[in-house]
């Protein structure tokens, strides 16, 4: 598992440069001082997101707003990408929800349409008939 880096002093200086470009009335030393009050239990992405929300809010009239809790978002759990695969061929399913190999077999008449992306044994089907 990758550890999230915490927001620190160097990050505050770098963030102050960006925020000062978007809020010209806020001086960089004041921004750094306000960011120093940000709780250091936030990772970099959370701290920067909160700071940019504050800087974008016209109601935030001074850099002190950067430390306000109202701009913090709840941590978001990482997204897990799941890939659906065909149980017969192991191929990734297309955006249409089918396996290219199954589709080819159906078009070639080697597999019935209702067996799309399902275990299919043509020999067992012939034995049942």
Low-confidence stretches: none
> What about the largest sheet?
none
Tell how many strands the DSSP assignment holds.
0
Q: SSE order in H/E notation?
A: HHHHH
Architecture overview:
With 129 residues, this protein is mostly helical. Helices cover 40% and strands 0% of the residues. The chain has five helices and no strands. It has helices at residues 9-22, 28-36, 44-56, 100-107, 122-128. Helix 1 packs across helix 2 and helix 1 (9-22) runs parallel beside helix 3 (44-56). The mean pLDDT is 81.
Write a brief structural summary.
The chain is mainly alpha-helical and 129 residues long.
List keywords for this structure.
rod-shaped, 129 residues, mainly alpha, 5 helices
Give me the secondary-structure topology.
Layout: H1 9-22, H2 28-36, H3 44-56, H4 100-107, H5 122-128
Helix pairs in contact: 1-2, 1-3
């Amino acid at each position: 598992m990758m550890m999230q880096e915490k927001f620190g002093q160097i990050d505050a200086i770098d963030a102050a440069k960006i925020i000062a470009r978007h809020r010209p009335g806020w001086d960089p030393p004041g921004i750094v001082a306000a960011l120093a009050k940000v709780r250091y239990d936030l990772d970099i992405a959370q701290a920067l997101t909160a700071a940019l929300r504050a800087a974008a809010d016209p109601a935030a009239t001074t850099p002190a707003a950067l430390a306000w809790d109202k701009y913090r978002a709840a941590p978001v759990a990482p997204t897990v990408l799941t890939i659906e695969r065909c149980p017969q061929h192991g191929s990734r399913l297309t955006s249409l929800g089918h396996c290219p190999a199954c589709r080819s077999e159906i078009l070639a008449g080697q597999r019935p349409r209702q067996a799309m992306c399902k275990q299919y044994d043509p020999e067992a089907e012939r034995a049942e008939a």
